[in-house]
Design goal:
The protein is an alpha/beta fold. 45% of the residues lie in helices and 15% in strands. The chain contains ten helices and eight strands. An eight-stranded parallel barrel has the order 1-2-3-4-5-6-7-8, surrounded by six helices.
């Protein structure tokens, strides 16, 4: 991320994806999360130390629900949070590809800003390689950041080709993509590129496919030095369980790193004594 915003994400941390508070999720026929339940979820997330929240214009009422919650927070508490949203797709989704024309993006951003009050990170939803070749689109995102209208800009991708292209462009501060132990291709692309973009990792449990098969967050702690892992839920109990699992994975990674450091120190000391 840009400037002081970048310094606020220094490690692998847990964030909350908010598709479920605005539209039917995780299946199209699921009920929409009630407002009281959404507010309780947000309250508990903040109490648990989560500071990164990811929404989108395509998430139904998610931006509106989050914006109402943010307006009720004390100014100091709101400033502790990082609010990310996405433009470029609407819901219900129209037939055909998302509209990434500048006019559509500008309209989407203005609505997001009106609903949220302030946008810390604006991302292009479902970004493609063709989008990343559009100089006018890139200039628009760069201009938003330069003007201070947003704190940082990024893209959300789902293909290895789009991720490679995004990482080769200095305009963007963040890249969002699926990352889990069942699907490691995009993670490998990010590692190989060795770029400074902050990765935002969605589908950490592969949409539930690897839930109950060990600690899924151990993968993220091992594969990334700095990232936001976006867990998604509408239930406080599920959020608490995920937060506890993430904390356990963090503790295990810290212990492993400490043991490796101690081993290196012992080997260095032993080698020195032999000389």
């Amino acid at each position: 991320m840009n400037g002081a915003t970048a310094d606020r994400v220094r490690d692998v941390t847990l964030g909350l994806g908010l598709i479920g508070i605005g539209r039917p999720w995780p299946t199209p026929d699921a009920p929409v999360c009630p407002a009281e339940q959404a507010r309780a979820l947000l309250d508990r997330a903040v109490a648990l130390g989560i500071r990164f929240f990811d929404t989108a214009a395509a998430y139904g009422r998610s931006e509106a629900v989050l914006g109402e919650y943010l307006r009720d927070l004390p100014v100091g508490r709101r400033d502790d949070l990082l609010i990310a949203t996405k433009c470029g797709e609407t819901w219900p989704a129209p037939v055909g590809p998302p509209d990434h024309s500048l006019g559509a993006l500008e309209t989407s951003f203005e609505r997001s800003r009106e609903l949220l009050g302030r946008v810390d990170l604006l991302q292009l939803h479902k970004c493609t390689v063709d989008d990343l070749r559009d100089e006018r689109l890139l200039a628009w995102f760069e201009g938003l950041r330069a003007s201070g209208e947003v704190g940082a800009v990024g893209v959300s991708v789902s293909s290895e080709e789009a991720l490679r292209a995004a990482l080769d462009i200095a305009v963007f501060d963040t890249v969002q993509f699926p990352a889990n132990s069942a699907s490691t291709g995009l993670t490998a692309v990010f590692a190989e590129a060795e770029r400074a973009h902050l990765p935002l990792l969605n589908r950490p449990m592969a949409s539930g496919a690897i839930a109950g098969t060990g600690n899924p967050f151990a993968f993220h702690r091992a594969a990334f030095q700095r990232a936001v892992v976006l867990t998604g839920t509408t239930k406080v109990g599920h959020l608490e369980a995920n937060t506890a699992a993430f904390a356990a994975a963090t503790a295990a990674a810290t212990a492993t790193a400490a043991a490796a450091t101690e081993q290196d120190r012992w080997m260095t000391t032993t080698e020195t004594r032999r000389r």
